Amino acid sequence: ISQLESIKAPEGGKLFLDVKRREEEFSGPYIHLIPHVIFRLKEGYRYSYKFGFGRGGEVIHYEEGKGRRESWGVHRKEGVLIAMGPGIRKGYKIRGARIIDLAPTILHIMDIPVPSYMDGRVLEEMLE
Fold first, then answer.
1. Which helix (H) or strand (E) holds 4?
2. pLDDT of residue 48
3. What pLDDT score does 67 carry?
4. How far apart are CA 18 and CA 15, in angstroms?
5. Are 39 and 19 in contact (CB under 8 A)?
6. All residues at 6 or more sequence positions from 31 whose CB lies less than 8 Å from its CB, including other chains
7. Domain definitions of the chain by residue range
8. In 3D, which of 28, 27, 23 has the Cα closest to residue 1?
9. What is the pLDDT of residue 41?
10. Do 9 and 42 form a contact (C-beta atoms < 8 A)?
């Protein structure tokens, strides 16, 4: 992990925003299916799916602009969450929500107990 953290981007600064062991980010009975090391690249950098499919090419590359054909999008923990309906606070801006918080929140809204082994948390701050 320290070796990955020490890699510099060509323009300077760290290439990785963070590098963690899977146990720092996830838990549960299927943790063995997750890669041992989880990382996030600096903005603008992508890792290539071509390399994973044995097509060669750079493993990590910088993408300038948008709409590159070989890009499958950006896969990050951060995303867009828009909620509306009974029990949802009107006009509230959610801060710090993660995709793993959706399932516990939906279960809570449906009055279904959230299992203790489930990752994430109920986004109670967005609920009335």
1. helix 2-5
2. 61
3. 46
4. 9
5. yes
6. 22, 23
7. 2-62, 77-128
8. 23
9. 83
10. yes
